[in-house]
Amino acid sequence: MLRWIDVIKYAKYSNPEPPFTVEKTKAEWRQLLSPAQYHVLREKGTEPPYRNLYCRSYAPGTYVCAGCGEALFASQEKYHAISGWPSFTQPLSKSGLRFLFDDSHHLQRIEVQCNVCGGHLGHVFPDGPAPHGLRFCINSESLRLVNE
Ligand SMILES: [Zn+2]
């Protein structure tokens, strides 16, 4: 299980090796993604709180990256964080995500990216539920729910 100290270490030193990588040009991503997906994944945008697809969705399945299809989060790890965005306590695997310090907007946060395609997903915070205390605050536009 991932702990906050692991997240800090990954951001500070180096992230786990991805299972493989997907690289595309800006033009290719624009063709593949909707404008809203492109804004979040490739321009580090943030979608509006609450008015997004998966905020209140608790359907079972696997959340995959909307950019490359890598499996990122299981619906069992999704919980109601009252933040306005889909929130998860743990990722599916340690190698699926990468963590980077983000000092934008005068905030010290840790950005979460898809480790396969480098798409921006959201941020991770140390105020999640026990036992591991992580809250992955993820944009719906960066995800696609695949029902099992
Ligand atoms: Zn991806």
Automatic annotation (TrEMBL):
Entry's Gene Ontology BP terms: protein repair; response to oxidative stress
EC number: 1.8.4.12
Gene3D superfamilies: Peptide methionine sulfoxide reductase (2.170.150.20)
Keyword Oxidoreductase tagged: yes
InterPro entries cross-referenced by the UniProt entry: Met_Sox_Rdtase_MsrB (IPR028427), Met_Sox_Rdtase_MsrB_dom (IPR002579), Mss4-like_sf (IPR011057)
Top-level enzyme category: oxidoreductase
Name of the protein in its database record: peptide-methionine (R)-S-oxide reductase
Transmembrane segments: none
Pfam families: SelR (PF01641)
Keywords recorded for this protein, A-Z: Oxidoreductase
Reaction(s) the record says it catalyses: L-methionyl-[protein] + [thioredoxin]-disulfide + H2O = L-methionyl-(R)-S-oxide-[protein] + [thioredoxin]-dithiol
Span of domain MsrB: 26-148
GO molecular function: peptide-methionine (R)-S-oxide reductase activity
One cellular-component annotation, GO: cytoplasm
